[in-house]
């Protein structure tokens, strides 16, 4: 059985972008693969986080995984910081990573742009991500388009380690959706929808109330034309809304085009909002039940135990190959 691993940062309210680009594929993959789904709390602190908010969001992301359909009996659901091997292997990899390759990472460039003081953690972020993936020898990593470059670097680091110290790590493959790999902001279709955007009108949060969803979508920026046509180069805003529609209504882009032929944007946006609400409402109800039950702590503890069993072995193997003197049992 192939192994799958992915993670989401508890750095804000999860968005429809996270759901379509990542979580939906987590749910699909869990039936035929051995899966590990983390809440990457140690990545979240690469930008400042309020301690109480970090704790709350960590629980919230784990609960949203379950509410979205991840079955903790199938997939290990855990917090990255509960498995200390991630940080340790991350350190080993910082000694193999090059400054130049880290400087080329577009997520680093975007998140550091215009800041006077840039944390070193933000810079080495992709090295910790490589450790997250390689410590489980994952074959497949379901992510959105924005993480492709980090995956490339992960593959390079694995190959570099294997070349120098002998075959230790599986070279992972990204698993990126064909449509919806990059859901864009509602106010600016040149930027990806992001949970850490300070403008809440730019994203649909998974937990947004139905009326909020309707309001945000009715105000989503569109061009001055009328044609509901998928043309990302010339009509990026309506194409983005069509990708969301396709996912939430389970329709193809062609079916959507023909349904709205000659009708303008008004009705399309209204229907879109109802499709989004119909996806989010049951998920939100499930989320509330899970949070109330308090069962998330048990899920995270069991997930960490399963993850730790795999991680500690890989770490030991990597350390031995690098020449660390291992303690005698
Ligand atoms: P932040 O704004 O804090 O950087 P984010 O919203 O970009 O967060 P991440 O935690 O970095 O979210 O991403 C979690 C997963 O969701 C990743 O696999 C990422 O590729 C995917 N993802 C994030 N935003 C989008 C988007 N707009 N469209 C598709 N996939 C996305
Ligand atoms: N870098 C990712 C989050 C992340 C991740 C991972 C994704 C951290 N570790 C391991 C997949 C596998 C992000 O910013 N979305």
Spell out the blueprint of helices and strands.
Blueprint: E1 3-8, H1 16-29, E2 34-39, H2 41-44, H3 51-67, E3 76-79, H4 85-94, H5 99-103, H6 106-112, H7 120-134, E4 140-142, H8 148-165, E5 173-175, H9 210-218, H10 236-249, H11 253-259, H12 265-293, H13 296-322
Parallel strand pairs: 1-2, 2-3, 4-5
Helix pairs in contact: 3-12, 4-7, 4-13, 7-8, 9-12, 10-12
The site of L-tryptophanamide has 13 residues, from strand 1 and helix 7.
Q: Can you walk through the features of this model?
A:
With 329 residues, the chain is mainly alpha-helical. It has two domains: 3-176 and 294-322, Rossmann fold (3-Layer(aba) Sandwich); 200-288, Tyrosyl-Transfer RNA Synthetase. Helix content is 53%, strand content 7%. It contains 13 helices and five strands. It has helices at residues 16-29, 41-44, 51-67, 85-94, 99-103, 106-112, 120-134, 148-165, 210-218, 236-249, 253-259, 265-293, 296-322, and strands spanning 3-8, 34-39, 76-79, 140-142, 173-175. The strands form two sheets. It has a three-stranded parallel β-sheet with strand order 1-2-3. β1 (3-8), α1 and β2 (34-39) form a beta-alpha-beta unit. α3 (51-67) packs across α12 and α7 (120-134) crosses α8. The protein is globular and about 75 Å long. Bound molecules: adenosine-5'-triphosphate and L-tryptophanamide. L-tryptophanamide (LTN) is lined by residues 5-7, 9, 40, 43, 129, 132-133, 141, 143, 147, 150.
């Amino acid at each position: 059985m192939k192994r799958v691993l992915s993670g989401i940062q508890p750095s804000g309210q999860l968005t429809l972008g996270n759901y379509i680009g990542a979580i939906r594929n987590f749910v699909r993959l869990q039936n035929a693969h051995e899966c590990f789904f983390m809440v990457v709390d140690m990545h979240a602190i690469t930008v400042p986080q309020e301690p109480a908010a970090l704790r709350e969001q960590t629980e919230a992301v784990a609960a949203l995984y379950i509410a979205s359909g991840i079955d903790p009996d199938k997939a290990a659901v855990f917090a990255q910081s509960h498995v200390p091997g991630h940080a340790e292997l991350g350190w080993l990899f910082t000694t193999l990573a090059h400054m130049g390759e880290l400087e080329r990472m577009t997520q680093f460039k975007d998140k550091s742009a215009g800041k006077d003081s840039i944390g070193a953690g933000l810079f080495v972020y992709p090295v910790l991500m490589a450790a997250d993936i390689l410590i489980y020898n994952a074959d497949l990593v379901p992510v959105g388009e924005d993480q492709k470059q980090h995956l490339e670097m992960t593959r390079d680091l694995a190959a570099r380690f294997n070349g120098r110290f002998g075959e230790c790590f599986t070279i992972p493959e990204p698993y990126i959706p064909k449509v919806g790999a990059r859901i864009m902001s509602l106010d600016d279709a040149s930027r990806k929808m992001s949970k850490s955007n300070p403008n809440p009108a730019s994203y649909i949060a998974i937990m947004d109330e139905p009326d909020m969803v309707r309001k945000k979508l009715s105000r989503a920026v569109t061009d001055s034309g009328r044609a509901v046509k998928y043309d990302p180069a010339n009509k990026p805003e309506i194409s983005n809304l069509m990708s969301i529609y396709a996912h939430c209504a389970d329709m193809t882009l062609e079916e959507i085009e023909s349904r709205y032929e000659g009708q303008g944007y008004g009705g399309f946006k209204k229907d879109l909002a109802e499709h989004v609400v119909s996806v989010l409402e049951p998920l939100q109800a499930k989320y509330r039940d899970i949070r109330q039950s308090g069962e998330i702590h048990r899920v995270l503890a069991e997930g960490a135990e399963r993850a730790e069993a795999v991680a500690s072995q890989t770490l030991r193997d990597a350390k031995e190959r690098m020449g660390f003197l291992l303690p005698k049992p």
